[in-house]
Amino acid sequence: MEKRLNPHLVASPRSAIREFARLAAETPGCISLTLGEPDFPTPPAVSLAAKESLDRGETHYIPNNGAAALLSDIAAFEQKTHGLSYDPDEIIVTVGATEGLFTALMGILEPGDEVIVPTPAFVLYQCIVGLAGGVFVPVDTAPADFQLTEDMLARAVSPRTKAIVLSSPNNPTGCVLNRESLAAVAALAESYNLFVICDEVYRQLFYGTDCPQFSTLYPDLKDRVVVIQSFSKPYAMTGWRVGYLMADRPVKRQLEKLHQYDVVSTVSFVQEACRAALREDPTPMVETYRRRRDFALARLSEMGLSVVKPEGAFYIFPDISPSGLSSGDFCRRMIAEAGVAAVPGFCFGGEGHIRLSYCCDDAVLAAGLDRLSAFVDKLKGEGSWNF
């Protein structure tokens, strides 16, 4: 009966990120720098709010788009923190950012529609585009230090292009799209009448002085923008599975049908927990990530690995192409021979790189980078390194 399943589903690969995390877990003593999950506990006030909601018996159906109080709080938070003007009825509380992305792309795409995605990029985008019957059009940003140019976009666009997906700060590079990149996207979106899906789940995990966002810079394009957010990363709530989608009212009212038929709503008793999360300050966590980022950058530089400085998220994406190994072979050998795990760049459309996550204890990060350094030295000693 497998042959009668949806061919788009059958063609979708399983997550290679999880595969390498599994290999690490199955290797005794291996240090895993693979998964992008905060190593901080969920703030106590958030957990308490959920418990109190349970104690009040708030375990029944809620409105499809989320509790009214949470929707109002999100609208106020986005206005105050990011300068975004969305009414509560332009917001859908989703089962993580994943459901938000799924809802947006499934709602926008028709079979054969093309979606431009700057790569390296999170693996989920390509899978959802494929499930929707769309065509994934990658734009390699590595030659421009993970930025976009008008020429890049001009070569990627076609009459079949329907949308472009932006992720900034980016997973896996940690890089932030600059204003010139975003201006190029705006010009393209207007010229070709494109949707712009802004995956902003790492927006609050930013270390630089300027974190421009398409949604903020181009409010006049609100009618074509869908913003995806998550509680997972800034509030260490990955297991709670809550995010939200924001879109212009006519678009949102159509997308909410998909949300309704897919999940009905998010969980009732986490609504108050999310309200509590919006009152939390992620700055101490961000400062810890900043310190770890700086440490990782320094260590990779000492190893002689080239890397574009990440300005957000909690990933770093060094270039391992001088090793002469594919990113997959590099990571497999690193696990087996050095006892440290990373995610190969091919998973994100970034062959020749590996993704290291620094959301782990300082001592674990230091030990993992020591093992990576020893592995690099071993490869250099074998004479396979292209200096």
UniProtKB/TrEMBL annotation:
Is Transferase included in the keywords of this UniProt record?
Answer: yes
The biological process GO terms on file are: amino acid metabolic process
Aminotransferase class I/classII large domain ranges (all copies): 30-372
InterPro entries, sorted: Aminotransferase_I/II_large, AspAT/PAT-like, NHTrfase_class1_PyrdxlP-BS, PyrdxlP-dep_Trfase, PyrdxlP-dep_Trfase_major, PyrdxlP-dep_Trfase_small
Question: A GO molecular function for this record?
Answer: transaminase activity
In this record, what's one Pfam family? Aminotran_1_2
UniProtKB keywords: Aminotransferase, Pyridoxal phosphate, Transferase
Look up the EC number in the record and give it: 2.6.1.-
Spell out the CDD domains in the cross-references.
Answer: AAT_like
Cofactor names: pyridoxal 5'-phosphate
Q: Which family is this sequence assigned to?
A: Belongs to the class-I pyridoxal-phosphate-dependent aminotransferase family.
According to UniProt, the name of this protein is Aminotransferase
Q: What is the lineage of its organism?
A: Bacteria, Bacillati, Bacillota, Clostridia, Eubacteriales
